[in-house]
Every structure is written in C-alpha cells, then in structure tokens.
Amino acid sequence: MSNKDKDEYYDSLVNREIKGTKSRYKLNRKIGVGGMGAVFEAINLTDNSRVAIKTISPQLAHNQTFVRRFQREAKVGWILSHPNIIKVYEFGETGDSEDKLYFMAMEFVEGESLRSYLRSSGPLAPTECLEILRPLCEGLEAAHKRKLLHRDLKPDNIMLSKTQDGKWTVKLADFGLVKLLEPDSEITKGANLTQAGEVFGTPHYMAPEQVLGHQISPASDIYALGVITYQMLTGKLPVEGSDIRQLLIAKVSKEPPLPSEKNPSVHKAFDPVLKKALARSPEDRYFTVGDFFKDFQKVVIRLSDTGELKISQEALADIRKEYFVEDMSSNSQATLIKQTTPEKALPSSSESSKTKNLLPLILGGILLLLIAILVIIFN
Ligand SMILES: Nc1ncnc2c1ncn2[C@@H]1O[C@H](COP(=O)(O)OP(=O)(O)OP(=O)(O)O)[C@@H](O)[C@H]1O
Ligand SMILES: [Mg+2]
Q1: Which superfamily does 3-107 belong to?
Q2: Residue 92 Cβ contacting ligand 1 at under 6 Å
Q3: Is 152 an annotated catalytic residue?
Q4: What is the residue-wise DSSP string for 324-366?
Q5: What is the pLDDT of residues 141-168, one digit of tens each?
Q6: What is the pTM of this model?
Q7: Domain locations in the chain?
Q8: Is any atom of ligand 1 closer than 6 Å to the C-beta of 113?
C-alpha cells in the first residue's frame, strides 16, 4: 500500500462510528499517521468527551501475529495510571470481516508532540530541558517500578501542552504497544531493514542492544531518554546515518560525539551525564531513570549557582524541586502487607487480635474454674 493509498484509506475513516465494549466513538479528524496506523480525534458518544483513537493500518491488521500481540500489549496501557502517561480507555475491534478495524481509545492530549515542538524551537535551554525531563522521567520511572518498559521512547511519543501559567504538561504515549516494534520480532522477521523500519519506526532512539535483538531492560529506555535529552540540548541527534543500515552500524560500533562537540553552545558540564546515558553497554548506563534525572538536575543547579546559567528566581525554585515518583501499583498496599509480617506491619492491631484470640481460652478457663469451685462447694 503506497503512502497515498494509506492516506486515502485513513481519510475514508473520518466520520466512522466505532463500537467499543465500554463506549461508542465517532472519528472526527485525522491527527497523524505513524508506523503502526493513524491517530484520530474522536468523540465518545456515550459521554460526549473528546478522545484520541489509534487504528491499526490495514496491512498490519491482516497479520494475525501482529494483531494478537497488539491486543496483548495494549493491556499495558490500561494498567498504567499516571499523570504523565496517556491513559488507554479500551481497545478492541469493530466492523465485520470486510471493514474490520482494530482500535485503541485513549486520553486526548491537546497540544503537540515534542518532535514538532523541537522542529520549531531548535535547541532548548537547559532549564526548559529540565522542565520537560522531570515529568517525563517521573512517568517513565513509575512504569519501570511496575516492571514495564516503554521500548519506543521518542519525541513523537511525548505529548506536550502548556498550562495557563505557561508550564509544560508532559504525557508519554504508546506504552505497551512497543513489544511489536522490536526488529527481531516475528512481524519484522524476513523483512529487509527498510521494510522493518517502516514497521518499527525510526531506530535513532533505540539502544544498541535493542538494535542487535539482545535482551532489553530499563537501561534501553534510559538510552532513548539520553538521545531525546541530547536532541533537546544540542538540536541534533547523537548518531546520524544516511540510511538505516549505516545508522545501525554506527550505533553499535562507536561512541557518539559529546553534546558540547556536537553543539559548542552546550556547556561541557552536561557531557558526562549524556555520555553515561548513551553508553553502548547497558551496564555502563545509569541504573535508574531517577539517577539520570538527578545528575542532569545537579548540573543545572551547579551552573546556576556559579552564574553560568542565568535563571529567574521563580525558575530557581522549580529546578531545585525534589524528584518524585508516584507508586502506581494498585496492589502495592496489599503487597506491602503481604511482605511484612502482621506483627511488624500493624503492631497495635495485631496485639489486640492476639488478645482476641486468647479471650475464648481465658473465659473457658474461668468457666472451668467456677464449675470446679461449685462442684467442691456442693460436695
Ligand atoms: N493521545 C493523543 N492525543 C492527541 N494526539 C495524539 C495522541 N496520540 C498521538 N497523537 C498524535 O498523533 C500522531 C501520530 O501518532 P502515532 O502514534 O500513530 O505515530 P508516531 O508516534 O509518529 O509513530 P509510532 O507509530 O511509532 O508511535 C502523533 O505524532 C501525535 O502528534
Ligand atoms: Mg506514537
């Protein structure tokens, strides 16, 4: 299917009604087309709210492996509930075999992607990078704490919008769809790199181990975070290549230039932080997203203390704000209680429960004693 055919197909979906299990939706407008399908602005006809609907491209919809994995993986989006992660409301299929459509309904974000913002803004000041990184890292680390990886972090999947007081709101998209995007998956197996690239998107943000099809870990997401930060600071990508093959070779065979080498207006103090985030070997990277964020934050604070970064009083308070990761696990309380012995977790109530347990014995004992005394008296 050519891009023109794809566009025509997606345009033909505008005004279509989708019947989900939770709600009915109507597609109003095509927002954008990605590697997997297209995203539409839609209306939830059940409560009149605005939602975003992602549909799978017809080509991929014929691939049963893809569909099965989409359905399985989309569940991750349900599990995650965090202010910095786009909420998935439901996913499913609609229509009969002729015009079947696989879709995912999610929270609509008014704004633009980091990719489109960077295209118009050019390199960002370190304070603005920090402002975007904080919610981004807090969302990502919260997911990591639930043992969930993003695997396809890139500026296209980061949605930005400004609040009334001019602050950034940041939301991560496409959590959970990402296992599909591995180059060694069954879906891309047999396809050449360019074809595979169409399916799994740009490999600029993929960690070397991901490109090589090795095991991935939180460190792979940290690598992508490093590429995004590098791009925000310098306005350029750390590793560039004229085609996918060259890019992949460069990525796995040499260290990228330091940010200050790529763009001399970037302070050298950021070099070690980005070097560590972009280390070729996952073991040499930051261990957690928070470790990366805090090191970046330390540099910004240091440069503002020495006067090398000019920062307003208001921004000064913002950059010093403590990093906070919300616990998203709905079962965390239960897990905590299960892991701790009741005596240790809840000393006072367990003491009283012990007393409660002993009460029948004590009463029984007293009763026996009374009976014994009565028997002695009447004898
Ligand atoms: N929940 C959303 N609310 C509003 N706009 C969105 C939402 N999700 C995605 N978009 C927009 O739709 C565009 C297309 O998204 P889509 O995820 O299909 O493509 P992509 O992110 O460029 O690539 P990929 O398929 O690899 O994720 C995005 O660039 C973004 O601007
Ligand atoms: Mg996306």
Answers
A1: Phosphorylase Kinase; domain 1 (3.30.200.20)
A2: no
A3: yes
A4: ------TTHHHHHHHHS-HHHH-HHHHHHHHHHHHHHHHHHHH
A5: 999 998 888 888 999 999 999 988 888 9
A6: 0.80
A7: 3-107, 112-346, 349-379
A8: yes
